[in-house]
Amino acid sequence: MADMTADPLGTELGACARGDRQALKRIFDAEAGRLVAIAQRIVKRRDLAEEVVQDGFIAIWTKAHQYAPDRGSARGWIHAIIRNRALNMLRDGSREDLLSEDAIQSLQEADQPESVLTAWAALDRTSRLRSCLEGLDQPKRQSILMAYVGGYSHGEIAGRLSLPLGTTKSWIRRGLASLRECMA
After folding, report:
1. Nearest to 178 by CA among 120, 139, 125, 124
2. Whole-structure pTM over 0.70, yes or no?
């Protein structure tokens, strides 16, 4: 069995396996830049590459106990996780339907799917729901309508708006919280 002390990342992975969160932070500080670059070469977009790395670090944390130094370097193990996550994202294909930057800037209600437009137009102008939805900023309102009227998943919304998945999720979560507060 290889000596983990000869591989600082291997030592940090061992600490992660024992629940040391600071070890994960040290791995992140040492490797995140390289990992984002690897993921970006595969997925071709910085925002998706960052998402791959975020998901990868969750996997590194939860699977650190599976690292075996006698089977390869810790760096190779970490890079393989990121590479595999990036390739899985490409295979998934859910982010292929993207809008250009200009399209995002000029995105109006007419650019939205028919069901979303129809539902928005069908709301009574004096209804409480319409009033509360109008109180939201445009991106949150659009994300909520796409999710709950159009039936899009968070990933599909992120792909259509060319946004990071985390941003889309937080817009929807915050928008729903504002709606609940307004409707109460």
Report:
1. 139
2. no
Tokens 């504002």 found at: 178
Residue whose C-alpha is closest to residue 158's, from 68, 45, 32, 12 = 45
- Select from 92, 110, 133 the last residue of a domain: 92
- Interval 148-181: pLDDT, tens: 777 777 888 888 888 888 888 888 998 888 888 8
Q: Which of 48, 69, 92 is the last residue of a domain?
A: 92
Contact 19, 64 (CB under 8 A): no
Q: Rounded CA gap, 139 and 89, in Å? A: 25
For 98, other C-beta atoms within 10 Å of its C-beta total 15
Backbone angles phi, psi at 166, to 5 degrees: -60, -40
